[in-house]
Amino acid sequence: MSLRLSALLALLVATPKLHAELPDPDEWELENGYETRLLYIHALANYAYDPTAQYEWERLQYANNALRVNSGSVSSDELLTEVELNLNEPLNEQWRFFGQFRREAFRRRPVREDQLLLGLERQLSRSTAVYLGVNPEFGKEFLDIEGGYARYSDDRQQYLRVGLRAIDLNWESKNQEGGLQDQGALKLNWAVRYGLGNGLWLYSEGLVGQGFERSFPDATESPEQSRHDRNENRAELRLSRVGEDAMRSLWSVMVEWYDFEESRRFRSPGFDYDYENRQLNVGVEHVRMLGERHRLRLLAQFVDQTAESRGFRQHDYDRTDVLAGAFYEYLWPSSGLTIAYAAGRPDIVYDALDTEESFAEDGYTDKLILGWRYSFSANAEIRASLSQEVSERGFGGGAIQFQMTF
Question: Which of 201, 207, 355, 406 counts the most CB atoms within 10 A of its CB?
Fold first, then answer.
């Protein structure tokens, strides 16, 4: 393996998962972002990947080595952070090393955990292969293993990759809290990209299945928590239509689904809860060149989110957001200057058991965005932006994006 791949893997340091603590009654992490009116303007408009960059990522993620980083300010003390690294390194005519790392630190998601998978792929025929990967966590109880089947086109830009992932495979025998696993987490993991003809492309990815169910009968080894169940599922479907050059003309329609359930029981009274959070996002984007130097990007998004807690901080949360954005870019041979406007209308209702904590938010909110990008080569590009919250009358945050294949 080349030195540059080894250096990238060295950056992927596993973060130990800590023992359970009692939830904070004043700032519960599962409710982070509930009151943020700009929550989805940040994530789905201002800091979202350009659809051309997204198209290139999907096209090359199993054909080349690829890295992308996206980081933007969402509050005075938090950053939206996305890091994805795909390694696809041939070892000989039949074997290939692969590595997949994903960090998704979103306020719109209730939990934030890194995902890492390293392994080998064995070619069976010209177009098919099987693979086996593991997640070498520092804590042995959090080791994951995935095996699956893959089918590729000759250039590996069309693919079907399906695997079964066992999460925290050794948890019961290796955990330090005397925990028993009543049900292990087992997920179907897939990625599909397929050309439908006439410039039309289908893309889908997801991680769906059963979550874990755990009990902690020994109070001396687990002094706070007595039970913990969790299941997290996600899936995405995208249909894109491109002209001869995706930079000049591209349509993209996307549906994203997310479902999170967690139940926890504690030995201290008043902290038990059953929590659910479901999100559905539907979006459309269009990119078009106007002449040789003017580029227009338009987007529209609809988000429907429902959440509820029974027990600790009991509440019902309903939110819908309608978003729109217009991005104009003036181009030079290796760079571009963007002026953009993004707006949204959130409708938020939070009904708490304690009526004094209930609230409702709606109205119009928007951002002005100034951006710049520079292409180091056809394989590497950086983007930077600053924004101003117009309706909120405050600084909207800065962002950096970097994407490359190698």
Answer: 201
